[in-house]
Amino acid sequence: MSIDRLPSTSGPRHALIAALAVGYGAFLAFVVFWPSPIDKPVEGILDRAIAEMHERGVPAFVDYSFIESAANVLLFVPVGLLFGLIVPLKWWPVALLLGPALSGVIELAQRYLLDERVSTINDVIANSIGATIGVFAAVLLRAVVKARDDKVIERHDVMQAASSR
């Protein structure tokens, strides 16, 4: 490779983000459009696990509802991260709207298309919180990568100027 040309990293980064988005999108679709609640087969195990946690001193507010909400938050953190990485950096605030919009569409689809699923505004709120955390993580990640890239470019420019003397 010639010293006067920096390698492009945008192509591989975009390809990786696209692959992750497709993979996580498929996983998310599997989870949210499963015909019955995804945890129904393990409902008894969950109840026993929660009871055991309470016996061991975990506060009573950590119940099924709390765990379900926390799971919804965690489920949407990668959604927000991917939205935050996909949109152009100057448009990152738009990514803050995409997570709640997606969650709303999912909840509406569950309400009208899946008889056994329950859609609630609490799910939309929890999903939106997770997506927002993900978007802010993406903005932070992009700032760190940009700072690193700027240093690499600066170092390259200094080396190129020194070699042309």
UniProtKB/TrEMBL annotation:
Keywords linked to the UniProt accession: Membrane, Transmembrane, Transmembrane helix
InterPro entries for the chain: Teicoplanin_resist-assoc, VanZ-like
Residue ranges constituting the VanZ-like domain according to the UniProt record: 24-141
Pfam families for the chain: VanZ
Transmembrane segments: 15-34, 69-87, 125-145
Top-level taxon of origin: Bacteria
Identification of the protein by name: VanZ family protein
